[in-house]
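Worked Example 4.2. Consider the chain below.
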Amino acid sequence: MYFYHLLRDIFIVVGSIAAAYFLMKAGAIEKFLEATSSFKLVASFVAGMFFTTVFTVAPATVALIAIAKSLPAIYVALLGGVGAMIVDAVIFRFFRDKVASDASGVLNKSSKKWLRALFRHGFLKWLLVILGGVIIASPLPDELGLALISVSKIKNSVLFPLLFIMNFLGILAIVSLADLII
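Applying the procedure from the previous section yields the following structure tokens:
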């Protein structure tokens, strides 16, 4: 059963990448930008919300770069970071409950015991948090970073600021880099 759930999750990821490709080809990004042309701050927030998932990271990145052409990058990153943090928090709840349970079900008892002992040490726990944060800051989909962070069992009082800061930095880096290149 757990193996079935993991296969289902992989299928969802692959399907989401395909859907994002078709959204880009269909011109959904251009239509979104046209519809929100007079609401750039709201568009930054919404594009940030879509910056987080496999399904929408590619079109959201393009939208954030386009918005940053007419709005300061810091505003785009701040509002996009808030939107991304909200969605990441929802996704994190999924990973904490579902994916960790599925992965745990696949492992045998001795592997589970070994992993629990391994991650009791602070260094490895925070290494996962840092690695997860770097993935969240990158244009890679946040699900992998959130899965790594969910293993560390950090408190929400640390999680939410971390999610905002990493998404803010990631969006700021992308729109700033695009501004230099384009």
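The chain has a mean pLDDT of 80. Residues 2-181 form one domain. Compare this with Example 4.1 before moving on.
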